[in-house]
Design a protein that fits this description.
The chain is an alpha/beta fold and 216 residues long. Helix content is 55%, strand content 12%.
Length: 216
């Protein structure tokens, strides 16, 4: 009886997809790797879906608008992002339960950096996100600050985004370095070289290993 129950539970788990997150500061290359991964996995007969935060089509324009200026009340932006994440995770859970593997471009650590930069207490950020789903695998894309600044200047010369301003970029770099040091100790985290396009094969290898373990 116990063996039958455990077998059934294992089969149920194996039918679920896995939740993958790409994190890193602006212009680190996380979107490049997340999107390229879709192409890389197309030959495996496994389903992968790309998502990105902010996620919801109605909330996204408001969030983007508030991110282009110094908001009088950063808590409005913070709670909008939290609401957006709830909607995002509903979709993620639906996809995972149907066996689809989900890639998320940005997740909780982005909130920890950008809303903290606006003065939201770190304790509150952790509290509001305390019940959110932990990714099965997290890929932190690591790129030197000087390289990222050059990419940002080339791509966003006229950007009004508050978080592209020099002072914010320096603070962003400091906060992400703190997160990187913390994440390096986590077994589900892989550090990716944001200057090496070939690291996509490293990412694919980690994912295929995780999927094979899940199906055992």
């Amino acid at each position: 009886m116990v063996d039958d129950y455990l077998t059934e539970q294992k089969q149920n788990i194996s039918r679920f997809g896995i939740f993958l997150v790409f994190e890193g500061p602006h212009a680190s290359g996380k979107s490049y790797f997340a999107k390229r991964l879709i192409n890389q996995m197309s030959s495996t007969n496994l389903q992968f879906v790309y998502t990105k935060e902010p996620y919801d089509s109605k909330l996204k324009p408001i969030i983007r608008e508030l991110s282009t200026k110094r908001s009088n009340d950063p808590f409005v932006l913070f709670y909008l992002i939290a609401a957006d994440r709830v909607l995002h995770l509903r979709k993620v859970e639906d996809l995972l339960s149907s066996g689809v593997n989900v890639i998320s471009d940005r997740y909780i650590h982005s909130t920890e950096v950008y809303q903290r930069m606006q003065g939201i207490p770190l304790k509150l950020i952790h509290h509001v996100n305390s019940l959110t789903r932990q990714p099965d695998l997290l890929f932190y894309v690591n790129t030197p600050f000087a390289v990222r600044k050059k990419r940002i200047l080339n791509r966003n010369k006229k950007s009004k985004d508050l978080f592209y301003q020099d002072a914010y970029l320096t603070l962003e770099n400091d906060y992400y370095l703190q997160i990187k040091r913390r994440l390096m100790r986590k077994p589900y985290v892989t550090i990716v070289d944001g200057q090496s396009k070939d690291d996509i094969y490293k990412i694919k290898k980690v994912i295929m290993k995780k999927l094979s373990q899940k199906s055992l």
